[in-house]
C-alpha cells in the first residue's frame, strides 16, 4: 500500500540509526560525567538506578537514555534541559556546551553572605541544587508581590 512505509514516518528509526544515536548520546554522557568528576556510582545514587550496569549500558550505547529521565540527566550533567532532550531524541546531532552553558559574568566582588550561599549551593547534590533554585524563584515571586503591595 502506498504511504505505509515505516521509513516515511518522521520519528521511526532503523536499528542502525537508533544504535548510532545511543552511542553518540552515551559517549557524550560518559565524557561529561568524567569532566564533572562524577562516578557511575554517583549517577546511580542521584538518579535512583538499581545497578551500575544500567548506567554502563547507556554510556557504551547498548541501551538508550530513557527520554522520561532526560531532564534529570541534564541537571546532573549540568547541561541545558531542552537542548539535552533534543539531543537524546535525535533532533540534534550534537550538544554544543560552549554556547549553551555560558554563564553571565559575576560581579567583581561578592559579599560574605553571597560567598557563603554560593559555597553551600556548590556542596549540594544536583537534585537539591535544582530544588534550591525552585525555592529561590518562589521567594523572588513573593518578594515582588510584597513590593507591589507597598
Describe the protein.
This protein has 150 residues and is an all-alpha fold. It folds into two domains: 7-97, Orthogonal Bundle (434 Repressor (Amino-terminal Domain)), CATH 1.10.260; 112-149. 63% of the residues lie in helices and 0% in strands. It is built from eight helices and no strands. It has helices at residues 15-35, 40-47, 52-60, 70-77, 81-88, 97-100, 112-123, 126-149. α1 packs across α3 and α4 (70-77) crosses α5 (81-88). The radius of gyration is 20 Å and the shape is elongated. Mean pLDDT is 82; it is low at 4-9 and 99-107.
Question: Would you count the extended β strands for me?
Answer: 0
How many separate structural domains? 2
End-to-end gap: 69 Å
How many DSSP H or I helices? 8
SSE run: HHHHHHHH
Shape: elongated
> What summary fits the major beta sheet?
none
Strand content: under 5%
Oligomer: single chain
Low-confidence stretches: 4-9, 99-107
Amino acid at each position: 500500500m502506498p504511504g505505509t512505509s515505516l521509513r516515511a514516518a518522521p520519528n521511526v528509526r532503523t536499528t542502525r540509526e537508533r544504535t548510532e544515536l545511543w552511542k553518540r548520546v552515551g559517549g557524550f554522557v560518559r565524557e561529561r560525567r568524567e569532566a564533572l568528576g562524577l562516578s557511575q556510582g554517583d549517577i546511580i545514587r542521584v538518579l535512583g538506578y538499581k545497578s551500575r550496569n544500567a548506567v554502563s549500558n547507556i554510556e557504551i550505547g547498548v541501551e538508550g537514555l530513557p527520554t522520561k529521565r532526560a531532564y534529570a540527566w541534564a541537571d546532573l550533567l549540568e547541561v541545558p534541559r531542552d537542548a539535552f532532550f533534543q539531543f537524546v531524541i535525535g533532533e540534534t546531532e550534537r550538544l554544543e556546551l560552549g554556547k549553551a552553558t555560558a554563564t553571565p559574568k559575576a560581579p567583581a566582588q561578592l559579599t560574605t553572605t553571597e560567598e557563603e550561599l554560593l559555597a553551600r549551593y556548590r556542596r549540594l547534590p544536583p537534585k537539591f541544587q535544582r530544588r534550591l533554585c525552585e525555592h529561590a524563584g518562589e521567594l523572588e515571586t513573593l518578594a515582588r508581590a510584597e513590593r507591589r503591595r507597598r
